[in-house]
Design goal:
With about 160 residues, the chain is mainly alpha-helical. The protein folds into two domains: about 5-55 and about 95-160, no CATH class; about 55-95, no CATH class. Helix content is about 55%, strand content about 5%. It contains five helices and two strands; from the N terminus they run βαααααβ. The chain has helices at about 25-55, 65-75, 85-95, 110-125, 140-155; strands at about 5, 155-160.
Length: about 160
């Protein structure tokens, strides 16, 4: 994620303002804040777009594609449970972040949550016409929110301040 730079801005918030701002200072603060939020949301949206472009890459790229196809064919023919296959263990548990109910990383974030929801909706509509109820454990959602906040905080730099 690309860092965004924001101007110091105390004139739009009664909790931190050190004086009563003029209407010009007040409006400048509000326009600046609006643009800063827009810039951060644009960066967040770019991260979602990047994730969409690589979604399920383990179904496309070798050597995983061959594993996936083999395991899917064997499951269809009743030779094995798909979830017991070699590809499934790699896809769900190691290489794809969005299968939150099977394997959830400590650094789960809302991009993972959004990808999971999009995946479930599209797969359900395209495959059976039904979208099953999507449930994600409350602890996972809380951790995703917390981790997303930290990710965003790490990518906002206030002009003129020392930043790591």
């Amino acid at each position: 994620m690309r860092k965004i730079e924001v101007e110091p801005n105390k004139n739009g918030d009664s909790r931190v303002a050190d004086h009563v701002p003029t209407i010009v200072e007040f409006m400048k603060a509000n326009y600046s804040h609006k643009q800063d939020v827009s810039n951060l949301m644009d960066e967040f949206a770019n991260e979602i777009r990047k994730r969409g472009k690589i979604h399920d890459w383990t179904k496309i790229d070798e050597p995983y594609r061959s594993m996936f196809y083999r395991d899917m064919c064997n499951a269809i023919e009743g030779k094995m449970s798909f979830l017991d296959g070699e590809w499934s263990k790699i896809h769900y548990e190691k290489l794809e972040r969005h299968h939150l109910n099977r394997s959830c990383s400590e650094d789960v974030n809302l991009i993972d949550v959004i990808e999971m929801i999009c995946d479930c909706v599209v797969a359900g509509k395209a495959r059976s016409g039904d979208v099953y109820d999507i449930t994600i454990d409350d602890d996972i959602l809380k951790r995703a929110v917390k981790n997303t906040v930290e990710m965003l905080k790490d990518n906002v730099v206030v002009k003129g301040e020392q930043n790591d």
